[in-house]
Amino acid sequence: MLRRSFAIHTNRVYTANMKSDLQRVNITLPSQTLQRIDRVARPGTRSRVIDEAVNFYLKEHGRANLRKLLKEGAIANAEQDRKIATDWFHIEKEVWDKLDQ
Questions:
Q1: Are 5 and 37 in contact (CB under 8 A)?
Q2: pLDDT at 20 over 90
Q3: Residue 8 reports pLDDT greater than 80
């Protein structure tokens, strides 16, 4: 009898309205983290909450990393960029002056 109720539970929780590309994983979380998840997750939606949280973290972390890399690149290339802009300034000014006439 226990086996049947477990099967009903797992079928309802893990297959209802879920994508076919899901994979089951086992993770270990501190009990305080799990309690916090359970406060915001409706019954049967814990995996969805964790998925959304992980995707949000990765998206934000990726943006922060991209900003850091762009800043580092701009600082590293600043002198070269300034020299190129200075070298081409008179040519660009000449073209803009002709267009204004």
A1: no
A2: no
A3: no
Q: Cα separations (Å) of 49 from 27, 34, 53, 85, 96? A: 14, 11, 6, 49, 55
Domain residue limits, the chain: 2-100
Query: Would you give the DSSP letter of residue 30?
Result: -
Alpha-carbon dihedral 76, 78, 83, 88, rounded to 10 degrees? 120
Rounded to two decimals, the pTM is: 0.50
Phi/psi of residue 27, nearest 5 degrees? -130, 160
Which candidate, 56, 61, 36, 55, places its Cα nearest to that of 46? 36
Sign of CA dihedral 13, 38, 19, 25: negative
Q: Note the pLDDT of residue 2.
A: 47
Concatenated DSSP letters of 31-100: HHHHHHHHHHSPTT-HHHHHHHHHHHHHHHHHHHHHHHHHHHHHHHHHHHHHHHHHHHHHHHHHHHHHHH
